[in-house]
Every structure is written in C-alpha cells, then in structure tokens.
Amino acid sequence: MSQSPTRQNISLGRLFLPASLRQRFELERYHVCEFVRREAIPALHSGMQVLDAGSGRLKEQVMREELLASGATLHTLDFCAGPGVDFVGDVSDLPFKEGSYDAVICTQVLEHVKSPPKTVSELVRVLKPGGMLYLTAPQSAPLHNLPWHFFNPTKLGIQMLLEDLGMEVVKIKPQGCHFSQLATVLHFTVPVLQQSSLPKIVKFPAELAARFLFGFVAKLVLIPLDKFDTQCKNAGGWCFAARKPQSSPSTPSS
User: Fold this and answer.
1) For residue range 195-231, what is the model confidence (pLDDT) as tens digits?
2) Three-class SS of residue 5?
3) Closest by alpha carbon to 239, among 134, 165, 95?
4) Coil, strand or helix: which one is 103?
C-alpha cells in the first residue's frame, strides 16, 4: 500500500485521539483496510498462497499481521527492497508462474504504474483458476510518491479492465463518498501550508488551526454524512473483489 498523501510526521490525532477514532479519521487508509478485513481475510485459510503485490515496506504493510493470522502463506512484492519485502519486482511484470496464487491483494498501487491494463493482466495471470483478486485504487488522490503517480482510475475504468480479462466482479465498495472526500481535501490544506511560501510567523499558527479544524472538526462533522450520499460519484477511490473463472481465457500481454 502506497503512503498516504496527507499523512504527516507529527499527528495531533496520534497524540490526543483514541486508536479507534484515529483509525477512522485516516480516510485514505481506513476504507481500504476495512475492505481487506471484511472481504479478503475471511476467505483466507491455512494452505492458501497469497500475494501482496506492491506491498510497500514493513511499515506500510498495515494489514500484514491480520493476513498472517489467517494461516495463509503471505508473499510480498515491491519495486524497492527493504524490510518485509519478500520479492523485488515490477507489478507489471511479475516474476511468478501462471496460476501461482489463491489470492492476490493489490491496494493503492494502480495509480503508480505506467500501464494499468498490463498490471491488472499480470495480477490475473498469477491467480489460480477460481482465485480472488482484491484490487483498490484512489479516484481523487492528490499527487503523491512523485514522480510515480500517473493515474487516478474511476470505478468504470477498473471494472472495464477486470471484465476485459474475463474476471467476475463480485464486490465493489467506495473508499468513502462525497463528504469523506471533502474532509480529505480540506485536510490536505496542512501539507499545502507546510510547503507554502507563507512567512513562518503566519505558517505555524495557520498549520495548527488547519490540523484542528480540518483534521478533526471537519471529519467529525462530515464523515457521518456519507451515508446520505446515495450516488457516490465523488468517491475517494474504489475497492474491487473479482474472481478468476475456473476456465479462464488467456490474458493479453499488454
């Protein structure tokens, strides 16, 4: 999972909020973790082979312990070597044989690849027939992990990529709807202020005020309103669960 674009080294939430509320307010991460927790982990068990493609290093593998607790064998792959990375490689050119894994998890990675169709094709290729792909991506994320941020795919775009490869989409969940997305954009004021040319005498109090107003008050008010957004056209991103058919057509190379 790539690093959150609004995540900062100093967090008032970590200092003052209970863990459950703090996790709920980490909007770029909360919905993805809940999706993996509710959809992927209950389907895993001992004897299964699971790949976390684009896992990040150990500190970014926030679901690692819960995935291991399922009893499944977990392999992690990332572009950069480091603690917690089992295989160094490109998610668009996976170093595994076809049909190697019972489940593949790829969270918040698709925006960082040069060819989303090729990447999704590779994720599908290494799945066993009947295997599950758990794929998430942001639709509205600000630029992050530069210069490796190329796309913010929509729900229709991800669905098209999966269905073109013969995958059966079994679950689609938004990463928060309009009001959560509004809260996320407001909270992004903090890094904008940090990187601004404002004088220090103005910047410091402005940043503190933004952390409190947008990192806490706005989220407290806005997040509960998400349940009233029935269209969810302004989602923060999308989470997909898709099954590879037992008799799968050959996947294209690009």
Assistant:
1) 999 999 999 999 999 999 999 999 999 999 999 999 9
2) coil
3) 134
4) strand
